[in-house]
Amino acid sequence: MLPYGDEHELIRATAKRFFESECAPHQEAWESARMAPPEIWRRAGELGLLCPRIAETYGGSGGDFLFAVVLIEEQVRAGATAPVMSLHSDVVAPYLAHYGTDAQKTEILPKMISGETVGAIAMTEPGAGSDLRGMRMTAKRDGDAYVLSGQKTFISNGASAGVVVTAAKTGEAISLFIVETADLPGFSHGAPLKKLGQGPADIAELFFDDVRVPANRLLGEVEGQGFRQMVERLAEERLLTGIVAVAMMERAIDHAVAYTKERTAFGKRIIDFQNSRFKLAEAETEARVARIFLERCILKFVDGRLGEDEAAMLKWWTTDLQGKIVDECLQFFGGYGYMLEYPISHMWLDSRVARIYGGANEIMKEIVGRTL
To answer: What are residue 122's DSSP bridge partners?
Structure first.
C-alpha cells in the first residue's frame, strides 16, 4: 500500500470533482477541436492541480510524488483524456525544476502552476523517435542567442504550449532549450493531429525556422548536457506511463463487471456464464499483480532506488497488459463495445499508443535484455 496522507486525499477529492464535472462532459467537444481550451488549464491552476510537486518558492505546493499518482489515477478514472496535465506537471516542470537556473524557474514555473502557460517537451522528429541520437534539429550559437532550425512531431500540448523544452544538436551533442513560443519569429505549429485514439489530446507538429532563442534559455547552462538530462528523466516518465496503464486496466474491468451484471443473454446475466467469470477473474488477477508491481516501483522511485531496467520492465509489461485486458473487457460488450458512445471503446482506442510513446516496448525489452 502507498502511504497516502490527508493532503493526498484532499487533492484526490478536488481532482475527482474537477475531472468528472469540468472535463469529462466536454471530451466530445474537445475531440472535435483536438485540444482542450486555455480556460480549463487556468481552472486547473486555480484549484491547485498543476505542478503540485514544485517547491513553494516558485508557487507550488512542495508535494511528493504521490500527488502525481493521485492526479493521474483520477483523470483516468473520469475518462478525461484532456487536458494533458501529467505531461505539463510531471514531465516538463521537473525538467525546469531539476536543471533550470533560479532565474529560469522564477520566471516560468509560476506561470505553469497557474495555468497561464502550458508546457510541452519536443524530442521526437519525423526521422528520430526512440533513437534520440538520430536527431537532426540544430542549435547554433550566434552572439547572445542560439538559432534553432528543424522540425518536431507528435508533440503533446504542441498547439497549446507557451513554453517548450526543446532538444537540438549543438555540434555533435544534444542540448535542451527553453523556448517561449508567444510571438516568437520563425516558430509555428501545425493544427492538432488526427489520431487513432486520445482524440481530445493536443498533439501537433512544431516548426523552427531559424528561431532565435536567448543564450540564457539553455537548460543546464552548459552545452551538450541534453542527452544525459533526458536519460535521467526517462525512468520517471516510464513510471508515469505505468500508473496510467494500471489505472486504465482497472477502469476497464470495473466497466466490464458492471455491464455483465446488467446485460442478459439466453435467460441469464452475462456474468453468470462460467466463461465470463473466468475471463474476469483472470483480468482482475493480472491487474492486481500489476498494481503490486507498480506500487513497488513507486516506492523504490520515491527512495531513489528505481533503476532504468525496472522502469523499462514496468513500462512494457503494464502497457502490453493494458491492451490485453481492455481488449478482453470490450469483448463482453459485443456490438455495443464497437460503438463510440460506450466508454470501453475509447479505452480500447486510447490504449494502443501506450506501447509506443515513452520509448517503444521493443526498446524497453532491449534495455532489460542488456542487463541479463
So the answer is: 166
